[in-house]
Amino acid sequence: MxxxxxxxxxxxxxxxxxxxxxxxxxxFINRLYAMVKRNITPPFTFTCFTDARCGLNDEILCEDLPPxxxxxxxxxxxxxxxxxRLWNRKLGNLKGxxxxxxxxxxxxxxxxxxxxxxxxxxxxxxxxxxxPFERLGQSSVMRFPVGKLEPLFHLFNxxxxxxxxxxxxxxxxxxxxxxxxxxxxxxxxxxxFRQDCRWPFPLNYVFAPTLPSTARIVLFPRGLHPQHAxxxxxxxxSAVRSPLRHVLNSRHGKLRNGEKPFRYLRHYILxxxxxxxxxxxx
Length: 282
What we know:
By secondary structure, the protein is α/β, with parallel strands linked by helices. The protein has helices at residues 26-38, 113-116, 150-158, 160-167, 170-177, 193-197, 226-231, 243-251, 261-266, 273-278, and strands at residues 13-19, 44-50, 61-63, 97-101, 106-107, 124-127, 137-145, 183-184, 190-192, 217-219. The chain is built from ten helices and ten strands. It is globular and about 55 Å long.
């Protein structure tokens, strides 16, 4: 057994992403590719599994979406179960170890170490920081050998709704059921923007979010896109607000979807310039 993961893939680092529907599309894919290219030691490949290739950078390798195996995705769940396509026995022409990255993360440092840790047959996930008392992975950053997760594909397809109801999130399903178990990338290399970069209330009204020196990837889950955070747009599509205006809105009942006032107040963020330093194509 070797500790050199790259030895199993002829020295080529294989990065993949997946895109379906209209939520993200070419701008996010191209931006992710550019961030990978700036932060990886060649040789590498970047493959996107997608149902829409228009507007993609010519250097991106495109593959059709792997089959789902079911007619209807689960509802009443928060998980991104469309990622189950990645659990197929085959992923296009790829073989060996692949590193999967979500489209809405920001790469701020070298990706090389994500290919060097552990063994080639291991399944690695980022650690989920929102559940510190649960050993739970975060599927936004995931490394696995192609075909290793095929048992999950069949298990999920046998009862999609029941599986989603039981586990809620696809990452919990992977963490609990991956053949041979899962391992985690170093905790401080993959950070959660709201938890690891934003200042706690009330300092979030005074200081812009910081970028810890250990970070290699920063995640933006729960609908907060990097561009929103860069501009200081609390709640995604809402307008940029001054700290005072944000506080006044909480007093006047102008909250989102019945959100509780304190939750509203502590989620405020100032514009975050360092995101734009990394979140770009060229």
